[in-house]
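Q: Hi! First time asking for a complex rather than a single chain. Here are the components, and I think there are two in total. Is that enough to go on?
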Amino acid sequence: MAGLLIRAPWASLPRRLSEPGVLAALRLSLLTATLATGCCLLLGVPLAWILARTGVPGRRFVRALVTVPLVLPPVVGGVALLLVFGRRGLVGAWLDSTFGFSLPFTTAGVVVAEAFVAMPFLVISVEGALRGADARYEEAAATLGASRWTAFRRVTLPLIAPGVAAGAVLCWARALGEFGATITFAGNFPGRTQTMPLAVYLALEQDLDSAIVLSLVLLVVSVGILVALRDRWLSGGQALSGGQALSGGQAQP
Amino acid sequence: MSLDARILVRRPGFTLDIELHAEPGEVVALLGPNGAGKTTALRALAGLIPIDDGRIMLDGRRLDEPAGGAFTPPEHRRIGVVFQDYLLFPHLSALENVAFGPRCRGVPRHTARAGAQAWLDRVGLAEHARKRPRQLSGGQAQRVALARALATDPYLLLLDEPLAALDARTRLDTRVDLRRHLAAHPGATVLVTHDPLDALMLADRLVIIEDGRVVQTGDAAAITTQPRTDYVARLVGLNLYRGTADGTAVRLPGDFTLTTATTQQGDVFVAFPPSAVALYPARPAGSPRNTWPAVVAAVARHGDNLRIELTGPITVAADVTPAAAVELDLTPGREIWATLKATEATSYPA
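A: Yes, that's all I need. Here is the structure of the assembled complex.
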């Protein structure tokens, strides 16, 4: 961080920041990371609930599967996504012929790649929070006439909210920094699939100062959001400590 | 709104098999030592665990019958539960906790909150409605939990060790309050406890279970005067023996005979309080009946007196004053003489 700050071309900073490419990449990054986090919440919270609360057979296998993207090099994840969703992929061919719709090299593809890589952070965090929350509150809710869904919505979810928030923040941060899977699966088209990390990488090959500026922006945005959310949700969120250890694997690509 | 249940739950190394009945308005206490299966029975009634066999009928509805493939999930049973540690939802205020049940049953928010406020008034917590559970004292939390369970108008109310989490002073007040609220509840109540005082004070009828089985049922008077197992006898503070009666003489195992105030024939229990036993340093003169030599095994405090455990032809607990204990030099190993007033020993059919 100090290196970035010392070498930053402060004089030309305003000019470089106002370049249209920078803003487009930043907007795309924020948009896709947020959408990816939304997807992860929609899929990951129910999945974590199934893993933590039910006796569904094959749950260990599913958990192992969910955590694979943690250890898998993102590039490999990108290749795997291409094989499935690519124009000739297992699902992609069907999507293409039925809907005339293709995921790779689109903004939606960026979201898929980011969600794929960031999902484990959310699932692990929420599952930990669920395991820490006393399941007997759900029993108490049931004796009061609450269906499983009502009990989950009105009792369990508020109880695990800090864990969900912590998971969502980690998930978002991971999605924001995603490089390998994105460039493999979605390519590097400015305005469409070129997110900030991709822009940094590209700039690095042409103009070091630009790369530093872009990196600074990324740094300011992610640190800013973490600091803003920290006081509100993350203090006392026990699920975070485990997640933070995991986020060490965020080095790119 | 009567309860009619036979509950059979099998666990590795343990089987719970009890019958339980409760009339509308009746309070039945399930009393038993730890591990007797009390809480298991309560969870089965609430539908939190399935029964393996038997049948649970409530208000004429068949809730569970594994043989007939019937199981009603807890949310459709109309059974209110006050859990041992209350399980008040920590993120909701006392008022919202009480309103939770009615809300789940589709009562509009405003009506549910008004009803919850009325319930909090009834349990004397009107001014604590906005507080979160962690801001409430133990006794207040207990009352909120009771109000929350009663606010759903349950056909059956279940209480799991309702006073166990309270300190002695709060317990006394809360017990009196609880008794009043249970009396006002039109449905049946089943209360689980290991504290005989709670059971005797709160319940109309006691069902005593040991090791998964019912060993005795009856009202407070029957249980306290005529215990049928060692556990019950210890609970109510009586010495209990089983023997064979021939008139007022009861022959106990070990060829020891006690004379009782009652006349019976055949297989009987004999019970008498520890205070009916008197101790002497030497064989007392002119008292031929119910006198035997004994050895002090243990001495313990018991209220204002000392409780002396004696071995000898029969094992007996005796209560003496501290002064008498000093005078008699009652230390473990001391040999003394014990006598029992025949008028205080009763026999009843086993």
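A: The interface with chain A takes residues 46-48, 73-77, 79-81, 83, 87, 89-91, 100-101, 104-105, 148-149, 152 of chain B (CB under 8 Å). Let me know if you'd like any chain examined more closely.
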